[in-house]
Amino acid sequence: MTRPFLPLLVLLALAAPAPGQAFTDPDFEFTFTPPGGMRMLPEEERVHFFEITPGVGPEMAPIHARNIPRSDVQPDEAIVHNHIWVDPADMPYRRQIQITLTDGALPFKQPPDFTAQLTRSGLKVDEQQVLEQPPLGPGMIVEGRWRQADGTEMAKMAVCLFDAERYVILQLQCLGADYMIVEPQFRALLDSVDWPRRRGSGAVAGPAAGQAGAPAAGPAAAPQRARPGAPAVAPSEAKAPRGVDEGDWRSLQTLGSLILAAFVLGHLVLER
What we know:
Blueprint: H1 5-15, E1 23-25, E2 30-32, E3 39-40, H2 43-51, H3 57-65, E4 80-86, E5 96-103, H4 111-120, E6 124-131, E7 139-147, E8 153-162, E9 166-175, H5 179-192, H6 246-250, H7 261-265
Helix pairs in contact: 2-3
């Protein structure tokens, strides 16, 4: 590495905040550490987030915002949890993290389906990576950029992790101009992920599309026994349930994102 890059590296190191406090969702056995300086939204603020998210709206927002404990449902009933972190108003990066944990199989079988969702929603995909092996895989990472209505360029890293019974979608985004600074923070978050995988035999049963109360936009598709209002595939994209074979993912060189088209358009709905 040449000397001209050293001052830039020093500035990036100084700009990076210390890691935040580790977070665990015990119902999904999922643990990770968000970047420092971010604030986790309580349920009432998550309601506001979903009220202004395309495809959800005020009527369904409270259902999406409430993370029902597994102990409060029947043993065979699926749950969906949403957790959101944002930057405070005085932070320059406009970072936003949304983690959606879902019981059930992946809503799509082939990676091109995810790429199509992204491109139709205006996201320009820059980088794609298949995660074949633990500790983070199986799963995938996709990075891209889009412009908000006011012309502001935003950058996004979308990550999908899955096992035979559950899947997790992480949506990590910030101002496009700050992505060089924020990307190492997002990578550190991924390095901190601790999620014991469950293995099953054969293909995994796919989720049921078009469930009652399912919004057009949602971070994940609802499994067959999901509670009413759990996020599901957009009606225009709904497909018959299909199994997921991990070999299908590993044999492909490129992949897209599990982010649904309308949800991509709902980036950073919380105003600073």
